[in-house]
Amino acid sequence: MRPQPTRRPRKWPASEVVRLGCVQYLNARPLIHDWSGSVRFDHPSALCRALAAGELDVALVSSFEFLRNPIYAVVDEIAIASDGPVFSVILAHAGSLDQLQEVVIDPASATSVNLLRCLLGERKIQLVQEGELSPQRGRLIIGDQAIRFREENDARFQILDLGAAWKEQTALPFVYALWLIRPDYDGKEEIAEQLRSLGKNNLQNLDAVIAAQPVADRAFSAFYFHRCLRFTFGEREKQGFQEFAQRCVRQRLLPAAPPAPELV
Predict the structure, then answer these.
(1) Which of 74, 85, 102, 197 could form a disulfide with 161 if both were Cys (CB 3.0 to 4.6 A apart)?
(2) Per-residue pLDDT reduced to its tens digit, 85-98
């Protein structure tokens, strides 16, 4: 047999060569602002498919993607999370929760759909793909769509903030998105440190991130980034993520809780 060539370590910055994906919502801006390389912005579900297919090396995607496919390394210390109301992950409904028989789900994020399933518990509510809001039919809305819906319709409908409901049930933060790195990507430590440093620097200079948003969005961005979102993946966030995994198992959304992630 011919000897296999020795794989040499990369000599160039990971930001110049990494195929990076990031959710296209406002909530990701503090973790991606001022990134020097190219980025594919897309919906969470599309990024998850691209990451699984090997079309991306690293992506900021729904946290449930790790739970159902725990092959990825996870960038430590940074995430998109909330410790109470998140504002942008909501169940809109026209009547009381007791009247609900169906919920129109947003298929873009498996995390939000399964968070809703965990919060509903054993209640017999059917999840459907389409339908108009009514006293018997609610709608799960996430991301920038949820923000626009609240601005345009808040007075017309009841709003259940899923971040607030999770905190009420568990007393823990909820983790919506994580940076996941494919197992065959060579520069895990390097790219993780770059993304972690970028996120931490942006959080220390959050006013600059807010100033970079369109003028009409700056006041809301200040409220959203400072009061609704957390961008840490510390011990309490990890406890909340583990609780989410265990509840997904109880709801038969997962066959078993995955092992603890490889943190880099």
Answers:
(1) 85
(2) 999 999 999 888 88
